[in-house]
Design brief:
The complex is a heterodimer of chains A (323) and B (501). With 323 residues, chain A is an alpha/beta fold. Helices cover 42% and strands 18% of the residues of chain A. In chain A, 52% of the residues are buried. A two-stranded antiparallel ribbon of chain B has the order 1-2. The chains are: A alpha/beta (323), B mainly alpha (501).
Chain lengths: 323, 501
C-alpha cells in the first residue's frame, strides 16, 4: 500500500479514535486538562472518603480521559472551597464534593458573597443520616432514659460535636429545643475525633453519622438511641426515629457533586453521565449500603428546587440556634 | 505463643513477590517524595491512593504503609542537605543535621538518621505486635485535658532550645502561636485574623508555608548576605569505606538519642491527635535534657539527629495503632489511609483485629519488611544526596529556591501560599539579622493548633476551672512535670545568683 497523505491521515484518525475510551463517542465535550476535584472538607472525613471512593471508581474503570485530581479545601468550614469554585477560572474543569456546609457557610459568612444557587448541579450521590449515640457503660438504652438523664444533670450533661453551626449542632439544637434539654456542648474538629472521645467516655453522647460510629457500634461500645432519618434505617431496624416520637424533624448530610458556576451545558452533561454511571455501579451501591447512606437521586431541575428549600430550611434552623 | 504464629504468617504474606515488589517501589517513591521540601507522606499517600484500587486490600495498605515509611526516612534528607525540613516531623532533624552538613559531615548525619529511623521503626513495630489492643485502650483515656498537658510538656521541652536569649525565644513562640490562630476557629466556628480581608487567610497559615519561607527563602538570603558570594563549599566525599566508618560513628555517638526517640516517639504517636511531630520534638528536648554534653546539641550532635529521626519513625508506626483499633487517625497521613480502608470495604475499629486478622497481620509483617527495605535503600542513595551537596553554591542556591516554590505550591496549589512563603522568607531574614531564633515559631505553629482547642475544650468541660489539668489521673502528673521543666531554668538561675551573693 502506498502511503498517500489521505491514507495516512485516515489511519492516524482511526488510531486516535480507537485509542479514545468508548465514552468519548457518547457526546461531543471532553475534558482537555486534569479535572480539579475539590473536596469541601479535610482529609479523612466523610466527604473526603466519598471523593476518594468516586475517584477510585472512575480511575479503575477508565471513565475519563483526563484524571480527577482531588484537593482538600476544607478551610473556613468549606468557605475556601466555595470561593475556589466561585472564582474558578476554568469552570468546565472544576467540580466539588459537598456536605451541608454548602448551605450553612454562605448563610453564616455573608461576607463571602457566595450564592450557591449559581452553582451547577451534577449528581446527588446520596444523603447521610444522623443518629444519637451513647456509650454502653452509661446504661442508657432508650431515648426516654436519655432525656431523663440529661434533665437530672442540670446542664452538666456533656455532648461533643463538630462545632457551632455544623450539622450535628443543628440536630442537637433542635432536640434540646423540643425536649427542653440543657446540654454542655464541646466542639471538635471532626466527626472522627467526636466518636473517639465518646469511646473514651470523655463526653457522654454524640450525634454522629453511622459511618463514623459504625466500628464502635459493631464492637458493642456504642448504643444508638434515636435516628434523625425519615424512616427507620435498614442497618438499625430497632432504632426509633424522631418522627415516631412525634416531632416532624429529619436531617441528612448531603453528599453531592456540583460544578462551578458558569459551567457549560456540554461539560455538565459529560460529568452527569460519568457520575451517573458511578452512582449506578455496584461499587457505589455497595458503599451506600455498608455506610448506611440513603439514595436520593434527582435531576437538575429537582436539585435546584431542593437547594432552594435547603437554603431556606437552614436559614431558619441557624436563626433558631443563634437566638 | 499465638501472636508469633500470626506474625510469622504476616511476614510471610509481606514477603510474597507482589507485596515485596510493592514495598520496594513504595519505599523508594516515598523516600524521594519525603526528600522534596514541601511534599511529605500525606501527599505521597494521597496521590497514589487510587492506584491501590487495582490490588487486594492487604497489598494496597502494605504499599501505602511503605510510602509512609519511605517518606519518613526521606524527610531527614532535605533537613540535612538543604536545611529545609521536608515535613513537620523533620523540623527537629535540622537542629543538628544542618550543622553537621555545614561541617562537611552530611554523610554522618544521613547515616545516623537512617540507622536511627530503622531502630525507631523496628522498636515501635515490636511494641505494636505485643501490646496493640492494650495500648488502644490507653489512648482512649486521653481526652482534651490530657492532650493539652502533653502539648504543655512539648512546649516545656523546647523552651530551652532557642539559645540563651529567653525573651527572644518567648517572642518567637508567641509569634508562632499567633500565626497558628489565623483562620477558622473550631470552637466558636468563626474566622479569625483574616488580615486585610484576604480570603486566603480563612484557611489559616500552614506549617509548610512558614517552614519553607523561613528555611528555604529566609535562610538562603541570610547565607547569601553572610558570604557575599564567597562560598566555601565543603567537599564531602563518599566511599563504601567512608560509609562504614560513618555507620560506626553514628552508632557510637547516636545510640542514646536513638533509644529515647524510639520509645518516647512511640508512646506519643499512639495518642490520637498528637502524631509524629510532637513526638520528635519532645524526644529531641528530652535527649538534650538528660545528655551529659548538652552544649553539643545544636552544633552537630549525632544524638540530636538520632533522637527526632528515631522518634518520627517510631511515632508513625504508633499512629497506625489508633487508626486500626479505634478508627481514629493519629496523623493526617493515617487519615488518608483510613479513607483507603473504607474504600477497600474494611471497617477500621475495635473489631478489625478479629474480623480481618489476615489484613492486620499482613500489615504488621510489612512494617518489619518495609523497615529493612527502607534502611537499605536509604543507605544506597546517601552517596547521591551527598553528591548533590558538592554542587557549587551558585547552582545549589537557586535550585533550593525553585524547589521551595514548587514544593510550596504543590502542597496546596494556591498562589496565596506562595506569596506568604516569600513574605515569611523576607521576614525571617530580618528577624535572623536581629538574632531572633525562628525554630520556636515554626514549632509553635505545629503545636498551637493542637494545644489551643484542647485547652478550650478542657475549660468548657470544667466550666472554666483550670484545676481540671491537675486533678485528672493522667493529665495531673504530666502537667506537673511540664511546669517543673518550664521553671527549671529559672530555678537554676536563682540558685546561681544565690551562690554568687
Amino acid at each position: 500500500m502506498k502511503l498517500s497523505k489521505r491514507n495516512f491521515l485516515g489511519l492516524t484518525l482511526a488510531t486516535a479514535l480507537t485509542a479514545l475510551p468508548l465514552i468519548a463517542l457518547a457526546d461531543g465535550w471532553q475534558p482537555k486538562r486534569p479535572i480539579d476535584f475539590t473536596i469541601m472538607a479535610g482529609a479523612g472525613g466523610g466527604a473526603d472518603q466519598i471523593a476518594r471512593f468516586v475517584q477510585s471508581v472512575v480511575d479503575a474503570n477508565d471513565m475519563t480521559n483526563r484524571p480527577l485530581v482531588p484537593t482538600n479545601r476544607g478551610g473556613g468550614s468549606g468557605a475556601e472551597a466555595l470561593l475556589h469554585l466561585k472564582d474558578a477560572r476554568d469552570p468546565d474543569h472544576t467540580i466539588m464534593v459537598t456536605l451541608n456546609s454548602f448551605y450553612t457557610t454562605p448563610i453564616r459568612q455573608e461576607a463571602l458573597n457566595v450564592n450557591i444557587e449559581s452553582f451547577t448541579p451534577l449528581t446527588m450521590m446520596g444523603v447521610d443520616p444522623f443518629v444519637l449515640w451513647v456509650h454502653k457503660n452509661s446504661g442508657i438504652t432508650t431515648f426516654e432514659q436519655y432525656v431523663e438523664k440529661v434533665k437530672s444533670m442540670n446542664g452538666e450533661y456533656v455532648m461533643g460535636g463538630t462545632g457551632a453551626g455544623q450539622e450535628d449542632s443543628i440536630v442537637i439544637a433542635y432536640m434540646s429545643g423540643a425536649y427542653g434539654l440543657d446540654i454542655k456542648y464541646i466542639p471538635y474538629d471532626g466527626g472522627g475525633a467526636v466518636a473517639k472521645d465518646l469511646a473514651g467516655q470523655q463526653i457522654m453522647a454524640t450525634v454522629n453519622n453511622p459511618a463514623e460510629a459504625k466500628g464502635f457500634y459493631e464492637a458493642g461500645e456504642f448504643v444508638p438511641l434515636l435516628a434523625f432519618s425519615d424512616e427507620r434505617m435498614g442497618a438499625y431496624p430497632n432504632v426509633p426515629t424522631m418522627k415516631e416520637k412525634g416531632h416532624d424533624f429529619s436531617y441528612y448530610n448531603q453528599r453531592a457533586i456540583v460544578g462551578a458556576p458558569g459551567m457549560s451545558d456540554q461539560a455538565a452533561a459529560y460529568y452527569r453521565d460519568i457520575f451517573g454511571k458511578v452512582y449506578e455501579g455496584d461499587e457505589w451501591q455497595g458503599y451506600l449500603k455498608s455506610e448506611s447512606l440513603s439514595p436520593l437521586p434527582m435531576d437538575e431541575a429537582t436539585t435546584r428546587k431542593y437547594w432552594a428549600t435547603q437554603v431556606e430550611n437552614h436559614r431558619q434552623l441557624l436563626s433558631e440556634i443563634e437566638n | 505463643m499465638e501472636v508469633f504464629s500470626f506474625l510469622a504468617d504476616g511476614i510471610f504474606l509481606a514477603l510474597q513477590p507482589v507485596n515485596l515488589a510493592l514495598i520496594l517501589i513504595g519505599v523508594t517513591v516515598g523516600l524521594f517524595i519525603g526528600a522534596m521540601p514541601g511534599l511529605g507522606s500525606v501527599n505521597g499517600v494521597a496521590i497514589l491512593l487510587p492506584i491501590t484500587f487495582l490490588v487486594p486490600p492487604a497489598s494496597a495498605i502494605i504499599f501505602l504503609a511503605a510510602i509512609y515509611y519511605g517518606a519518613m526516612y526521606g524527610g531527614a534528607i532535605s533537613s540535612v542537605t538543604l536545611g529545609i525540613p521536608g515535613a513537620s516531623t523533620a523540623v527537629a532533624t535540622t537542629f543538628d543535621g544542618r550543622p553537621l552538613a555545614l561541617q562537611g559531615r552530611a554523610s554522618l548525619a544521613l547515616v545516623t538518621a537512617a540507622l536511627a529511623s530503622f531502630v525507631g521503626g523496628t522498636v515501635a513495630t515490636v511494641f505494636f505486635t505485643l501490646f496493640a489492643p492494650l495500648l488502644a485502650s490507653v489512648a482512649l483515656n486521653f481526652g482534651p485535658p490530657e492532650i493539652f498537658a502533653l502539648m504543655l510538656l512539648a512546649f516545656a521541652t523546647f523552651v530551652g532550645l532557642g539559645g540563651d536569649d529567653i525573651p527572644k525565644t518567648i517572642f518567637s513562640i508567641c509569634f508562632g502561636l499567633v500565626l497558628a490562630t489565623v483562620g477558622f476557629d473550631t470552637i466558636s466556628g468563626a474566622p479569625r485574623l483574616v488580615l486585610f480581608d484576604i480570603q486566603g487567610f480563612v484557611r489559616g497559615i500552614g506549617f509548610i508555608v512558614l517552614a519553607i519561607g523561613v528555611y528555604g527563602i529566609g535562610e538562603m538570603l541570610w547565607t547569601l548576605e553572610q558570604t557575599r558570594g564567597e562560598i566555601t563549599t565543603t567537599n564531602p566525599k563518599m566511599t563504601a569505606k567512608g560509609l562504614a566508618s560513618d555507620a560506626k560513628e553514628a552508632v557510637q555517638r547516636g545510640w542514646k538519642g536513638t533509644w529515647i526517640g524510639s520509645i518516647l516517639g512511640f508512646f506519643v504517636g499512639v495518642l490520637p491527635a498528637a502524631g509524629a511531630t510532637p513526638g520528635s520534638l519532645m524526644s529531641y528536648g528530652v535527649a538534650k535534657i538528660i545528655s551529659k554534653t548538652p552544649h553539643e546539641y545544636g552544633n552537630g550532635s549525632p544524638d540530636g539527629v538520632a533522637a527526632p529521626e528515631a522518634a518520627n519513625n517510631s511515632a508513625s508506626t504508633g499512629a497506625m495503632l489508633p487508626m486500626l483499633t479505634l478508627g481514629i487517625p493519629g496523623s493526617p497521613t493515617t487519615a488518608i489511609l483510613l479513607g483507603g480502608m473504607v474504600i477497600w470495604g474494611l471497617t477500621p475499629g475495635p473489631r478489625l483485629f478479629l474480623d480481618e486478622s489476615e489484613f492486620v497481620w499482613g500489615l504488621i509483617g510489612s512494617f518489619y519488611v518495609s523497615n529493612v527495605a527502607a534502611v537499605l535503600i536509604n543507605l544506597a542513595f546517601i552517596p547521591l544526596f551527598v553528591w548533590m551537596l558538592r554542587m557549587p553554591f551558585t547552582i545549589l542556591a537557586p535550585l533550593i529556591v525553585v524547589l521551595s516554590i514548587i514544593g510550596g505550591f504543590a502542597a496546596s496549589r494556591s498562589m496565596h501560599d506562595l506569596w506568604m512563603i516569600v513574605i515569611f522568607g523576607l521576614g525571617a531574614f530580618f528577624l535572623r539579622k536581629f538574632d531572633y531564633p525562628l525554630a520556636p515559631a515554626v514549632l509553635a505553629i505545629v503545636l498551637g493548633p493542637i494545644a489551643e482547642p484542647t485547652l478550650r475544650q478542657s475549660l468548657l468541660l470544667s466550666s472554666g476551672d483550670p484545676s481540671i489539668f491537675f486533678t485528672r489521673p493522667i493529665a495531673g502528673p504530666i502537667t506537673v512535670i511540664a511546669i517543673i521543666l518550664i521553671l527549671l531554668p529559672a530555678l537554676k538561675l536563682l540558685r546561681r545568683n544565690g551562690r554568687v551573693s
